[in-house]
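Q: I'm writing a short explainer about Lipoprotein for a general audience and would like to include a description of its predicted shape. Could you first generate the structure from this sequence?
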Amino acid sequence: MDLRIKSFFAAAFALPFLFSCTTLQQDVNIEQVSYDDEVVSFERRFSEIDAESLVPDADVNGKLLREQRVDDFLEDISFAIDNPSVQKAARARLLALKGEAELLSGSKSRAKSLCEESSASYKGDTRNVILSYRLGAFESGYNIEDSAPVVSEKPLLTLERAISLFKEKSYSDSAAKFDEAFLLLDPLYGDAYREIRDLAWNLRNAESGSDSFGLMTLQEISVMQMLKIARDKSDFLYNFTGGKSLGDKAFFNKVSAAGLLSPVSKPLDSENALGRDDVVTKFVTARFLWNLRAAKRNAADATKYSARLKKSPVGDVPADSPDFDAVLGCVENEYMSLEDGRNFRGDRTVSAVEFSDAVSKVE
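A: Of course. Here's the predicted structure. Afterward I'll give you a sentence or two in plain language.
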């Protein structure tokens, strides 16, 4: 295990903290503290839970699963803290991690109490500083990276800065800070937060004033949300609104009546027609993008694949699929891709960022 996660340096901090848990002694000696694999394991588990908390829950079940993971973490780390053989420095780290998890569960009072207990166990733990920061113990606008008097501790605070910038919707700066932190931290942090870093990078050019901006962190989107993103990304949908500000129902009806939500390879009956609240899959995305391209260019080309191919080159999309032409067209034009070089996995749901990236490629 990398020494950067196995050890940390404890030092005194002279900071304007508001809580007693952040009042650090001035005469603390800098010493190296080694953590065992159990503490490292809790670092990994918390990082994964923390990263998940940064994006909205796709549905009720997803929210319940996340809450259960936090509860399980709290139960397990409490058991580790109560172990009488745990060293003071390790206990301080575990207490701070537990406090951060309590914050995720919505218990600020318990988090504050754990912050104080962590500080009492061992002064200068970096996770204690991070917990204090999340509890609001620093002045507004304070850069937490300035809280590390020892160079070896700064990367973890740089990571916290990246997370803070992501929450503030400063996505470009957030992505840059994530990259900076990943270079110096144990790979476990990159494994946990990589998707958040990539999301920040994809969101960096999103227009904060657009209707779709608030949707961009969603891991699943509805058909109506897909259309809103497309409207902000593609000038072509202007033709369906005439520049007017239409309500959701009117906008959806115009797009649907124009055939942009209907498969071109094989028609569907009315019972299988897409509704505004249906979840967007890769099949739905391909269907919409291919229809959008056909409307922009030559509609006659929309069925060119089914007209000449009797066997599908895509493993899980047969030639008689309603979306056969859409899938082949989107893959060939690199609007979308095969999951493993062979299969499309059309039933997989699509995130807002993923759809936004795909629709921006349609010229």
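A: For your explainer, you could say: The chain has a mean pLDDT of 85.
Q: Perfect, that's easy to follow.
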